[in-house]
Amino acid sequence: MARQLRVGVIGAGHFGRFHALKVAASPRERLVGIHDPDQARAAAVAAEAGGAEAGGVPALALDDLLERCEAVVIAAPAEHHFALADRALRAGRHVLVEKPIASTLEQADRLAALAVETGLVLQVGHLLRYSAEHHAITGRITRPLYIEATRIAPFKPRGTDVSVILDLMIHDLDLVLAIVDSEIVDVDALGAAVSSQHEDIANARVRFANGCVAAITASRISLKTERRMRLFSEEGYLSADFVKRELTMIGRETGLPLPGTGGFRREVVRWDDHDTLAAEHVAFAAACLDGAPVLVDAQAGRRALAAALAVTDGIAAVRALWETSGLVSPG
Q1: Residue 296 burial (CB < 10 Å; 0-12/13-18/19+)?
Q2: For residue 147, which of 32, 58, 237 has the smallest C-alpha distance?
Q3: Which residues of the chain have pLDDT under 50?
Q4: From CA 99, how far away is CA 109, in angstroms rounded?
Q5: How many CA atoms lie within 13 A of 289 on its CB side?
Q6: DSSP state string for 132-178
């Protein structure tokens, strides 16, 4: 049997549990332990994950976990990402850290420099980069002029330790940044906290140096779940429904002819359910064991964080204007 990557999971919450199960099931990874401040929760996830060792997977103190593993998955709350990733890299461990990479750009830069200095893998968990829909979109639209993205869902207590920008919108920000090969020059944004202490709904208009514009909406207080993206370009018009797993492309290259449209064609693509988390772990193991390129590295994570923080700053500026004008009460 080929050598397996010894992986420890830090954080036994919603995503930590899923990561532990994927590691335990991976042919190229071996789950060696789980750490969480809630020892009972860590033990429960450890028991569920089982593992390759006859004695199962132990719930461990952080130092013990770092001693046993050669790579860690950090699925702790976002405020702890930097400290945990910094500690793991300094201990000589490869790192897969959930998004966002850190809380500040300075922290992201320090982690990126540390990964280069140590020669270790630092992969950021922007999960949708491994999705079938991402490949379907980027395989058809490469020079977008305008992008419209909507990601809304009913309220759930999970994830409210950060704003909806860092919880949900950052997914679409990362996808947009992966498609648009240009720097952000302006962000106009607004949002509001409704059910938590942070923004629960937000809208951002992002303008790039090459002229492309992206309008992105995210909400975690909606009555329904909707995940859509529309792209306009010289290559055609593309509409993707991520919930229905269906993409429609109107262009000139592929698909069935559309009578009376001057040569345009309509292509409809559907994809089966795709285990993006398993694909992310395949990529992580390949990077650590084989030296494969890291698809979502520290620089990609930093770029997404920078965009998210720009949206947050834009919302704060608009909030100040609302308060000054009397549209909303101060505080």
Answers
A1: buried
A2: 237
A3: 52-54
A4: 15
A5: 16
A6: HHHHHHHTT-SSEEEEEEEEE----STTTTS-HIIIIIHHHHHHHHH
